[in-house]
Amino acid sequence: MGQVVSEPGVLHKSKSKAQELRNPEAVNQALRSGAPVQTVKKFDAGSNKKTAGAVVNMRKLDEGTEPDTSRQIQRARLGKKMSQADLALNISQRSQLVSEYENGKAVPNKTVLAKMEKALGVKL
């Protein structure tokens, strides 16, 4: 008969692949066992958007449109008894843009402000 080997054999398990580690079950198991888990959320991943543009526009908005400018536009428009749509037609812009200027949400544009000054007869 053959001999039986009494020494235990050691089997090595292959390391987990990165895709297997991202599995929610693997993450939960690691959390339960107390292993360190790093989670990173990617913002706008897979999209083709520029991120720096929004920050620049917000800075321009903070610097440019002052609350008194938006009030001036609104008072002058109401003084001439014009609606936002009428003013928008007069300056060849959308009525939504006039609304944004009056609410202080629009990024100031010199040409649009010049058209508003001319239509309303007020220095902005």
From TrEMBL:
Pfam families: HTH_3, MBF1. Gene3D superfamilies: lambda repressor-like DNA-binding domains. The keyword Nucleotidyltransferase does not apply. Residues 1-24 are annotated as: Disordered. Residues 73-124 form the HTH cro/C1-type domain. One of its GO terms (molecular function) is DNA binding. Keywords: DNA-binding, Transcription, Transcription regulation. InterPro entries: Cro/C1-type_HTH, Lambda_DNA-bd_dom_sf, MBF1_N. CDD domains: HTH_XRE. The keyword Transmembrane does not apply. One of its GO terms (cellular component) is nucleus. SMART domains: HTH_XRE (SM00530). It comes from the Eukaryota. This is HTH cro/C1-type domain-containing protein.
